[in-house]
Design goal:
- Helices cover about 70% and strands about 0% of the residues.
- By secondary structure, the chain is mainly α.
- It has a single domain, classed as Ammonium transporter fold.
- The strands form two sheets. The protein has a two-stranded antiparallel sheet with strand order 1-2. A two-stranded antiparallel sheet has the order 3-4.
- A hairpin with a 2-residue loop joins strand 3 and strand 4.
- The longest helix has about 100 residues.
Amino acid sequence: MCDADVSVAPESLLADLVALKKELAALRKELEPRLELSTRQLQTESLSASYLLAEVEDLKVEEQETHATLDTVWILCCCFVASLMHAGFAMLETGACRARNASNLLLKNLMNMCVGTLGWWLFGWGFAFGDLQGSFVGTTGFAGSDFLLANDKGLSARSCEGCVTRVALCFFQWIFCTTAVTIVSGGVAERAKTGSYMWYSLLMTSIIYPCVVAWTWGGGWLSSFQGVGITDFAGSMIVHMTGGIGALSGVIVLGPRKGRFEDPKAFEPHSLPLVVLGTMILWFGWLGFNCGSTLSMHNSDSAALAAQVAMNTILAGACGGCTVFLLRLVFTRKYDVCGLCNGILAGLVTITAGCGNMTSSSAILAAFIGGCVYQAFSQLLLKFQIDDPLDASSVHGACGFWGGLCAVLFDWGLSRNHFHGSNGWTCKVSADGVCQKNLFGTALLVQLIGLLVILAWVMASSMIVFITLSLLGQIRIKQSTEETGVDQEQHVQSAYDIQGQI
């Protein structure tokens, strides 16, 4: 039995081995495609990961381009709206003065745009936003030389990564520059020679105003002074105070219009409809002026900040107007439409510096004080017989100074011992990303220094220009021209047929 079992076992084992070999071969044949597929899948997944990383980078670039595009469209739209302010200035200035000089005043406003635009493009932009020399003045970008960039495909608009183009920023800043010089034309209205004033307009847009911008918005020494920098969101100090101080300089050098303080009734506005129309256009254009200063509209934070700025702007204008209207009503017992208009503008000037870092209630309080500041400074000029036909130095100069102060005094971070300044929703942070505390004293000191520096620079440089023109006998029109009106003697067309009416 044992021998029989031994003889059978090897054969059975051999058969089992053969059968197992066949099963393994069949299994291998079945698994090989799956193994090849798994290998290919692993390779594909590895390649997909690389492609995914590359696609993520492409999406980041595309997102930056989208942000830059949205920001550019926003800035351009705001610039188109703010451009209307020049129409407002023209109507306000013309209506507030005598009919005999209406054509001349319209001419000056148009020439401000023409001369100011060329001055800004040729020199102003480069001095303001070019590469800074010693943190004081730009040295590149003159005549738009930094607008375009050559590449292997031709040309492209120059910008930083994810930023709006340089030419878009120049276009937006052009509004601020020409606004500053237009303010001056209102102060020297009805007695400055047109040609001589155009020289001042060129110097203001080419050198005087751009230097102020270079020190502040252009990244110069005042922008980071004491680690805080000045706070001026949309230009109470940089634009309006600069224009107001320039106007005051011209007013002082020129002296009052003949008979202004002997017969005040003869110098009342000739067209209240134009004054009101100009004020309403300015109020609307101011929304583009202030809201556009967010410089972005690609996320919810920037959109919310623009809405806050718009609300503050509207409230400040309304409060400033009501304040001056009531003050004039108390003083005169009569309604004063021009006082109401200037009060609106005083409130708007006041809020322009702090519109991006104030609550709405703070904006109302600041505008109320701004209306009082305007009224007090206007009365002070009258007391000293300083003749400013549009109260430009009071509205823009005095309220611009106050606006610069209240941008720090009413900063919405102070309740938490933080300071936001021009950062909008974000507080000033330390190197480790934590909100800095106890900055109020430093910020207020920096703001005061900035205000005084701007005031001194604009006053000194403007005085030099106006006094030089005066010494050359090229600043004031002849007495006979002043009596008959500039339109009749120097213009082909007169806005009104004064001679025919007589």
